[in-house]
Amino acid sequence: MKHIKKVPNDTTLLQFLTTEFAFVSLSTIKKQLRLGEIRVNDKKVFTDTSLSKDDEIRIFLPVSTQKQQSMPDIIYEDDMILAVYKPILCSTDVHLAQWVKKHCAIAMPVHRLDTNTKGIVICAKTIDVQNELTVAFKSNQIEKYYHARVVGKLQFKTDKITVYIFKDAKKSKVFVSDTIKKGYMPATLEYKVIAEDYNSSTIKIKLITGRTHQIRATFAHLGNPIIGDGKYGSDKVNREYKKSFPMLTAYKIKFAFVASDYKFISSLADKEIILSKDKQFFE
């Protein structure tokens, strides 16, 4: 599908495209660039280039990307933070960060979600707020809640699970153990089953620690991988459910700290930010 865009100010091609098309992965944009599917002022370009205000950009995107055209959306804002809904295929560090800066030039994400996970991302509007939120996240004083749909029925309807996770950066994957090993870090979460059918369960998750791929790897380790997860899940099940992305949503953030512990974010104490129902669950 062809898209035509006008450049609002001087920038670079990749910066412009990753902001305008937050629903498209950076790798897809670069591939279209290599294939000559991007034109600047009606001339094909094959590498990143400088753009000037009012340049016209034409990009041809694969039909498959049109299914994921939901864009980031600000769901809460005050003087300190933006709470942004991040859709699937939107990178926190690239697409979302650049999109947020269009709304507030100094805003920056304080934590991240996997590119293929949708949900709430908190962005700070000042350095002081960023520093305090970073401390609060690292000390588990900001609670993160998720909805997920997993394969099969879980052994317990509610449980608190601690496993040990090793991150292999070269393989971009983590490995899970029930017992502590060298290089493995403890990872804890709580869950509650809220719905079941014959071969799947919808669960509510409270993340206690924030390890890479923790939720996806933990439930795969339990034998109940998240439906749609191509890295830790079942290709057969994913094909049966026709899901290409994990059925996982970060639907709620709670600022569970004591107001007097912080100077700049004290007014956020006990506040909850929750996604609307239409964004919480899955199609």
Molecular structure report:
Helix 1 crosses helix 3. With 283 residues, the protein is of the alpha+beta class. The protein contains 7 helices and 17 strands. The strands form 3 sheets. Strands 7, 8, 9, 10, 11, 12, 13, 14, 15, 16 and 17 form an 11-stranded mixed beta sheet that branches. The protein has a 4-stranded antiparallel beta sheet with strand order 1-6-3-4, with no helix packed on it. The protein folds into 3 domains: 2-66, RNA-binding S4 domain (Structural Genomics Hypothetical 15.5 Kd Protein In mrcA-pckA Intergenic Region, Chain A, Roll); 73-141 and 257-278, Pseudouridine synthase (2-Layer Sandwich); 145-249, Pseudouridine synthase (2-Layer Sandwich). 21% of the residues lie in helices and 34% in strands.
List the helices and strands and how they pair.
Blueprint: E1 2-6, E2 11-12, H1 13-20, H2 26-34, E3 38-40, E4 43-44, E5 50-51, E6 56-60, E7 73-77, E8 81-86, H3 92-103, E9 108-109, E10 118-124, H4 127-138, E11 142-151, E12 158-168, E13 173-177, E14 185-196, E15 200-207, H5 214-221, H6 235-241, E16 248-255, E17 272-274, H7 277-280
Parallel strand pairs: 10-16
Antiparallel strand pairs: 1-6, 2-5, 3-4, 3-6, 7-8, 8-10, 9-10, 11-15, 11-16, 12-13, 12-14, 14-15, 16-17
Helix pairs in contact: 1-3
Notable features of this structure?
single chain; 283 residues; alpha+beta; Structural Genomics Hypothetical 15.5 Kd Protein In mrcA-pckA Intergenic Region, Chain A; Pseudouridine synthase; 3 domains; eleven-stranded mixed sheet; four-stranded antiparallel sheet; 7 helices; 17 strands; 21% helix
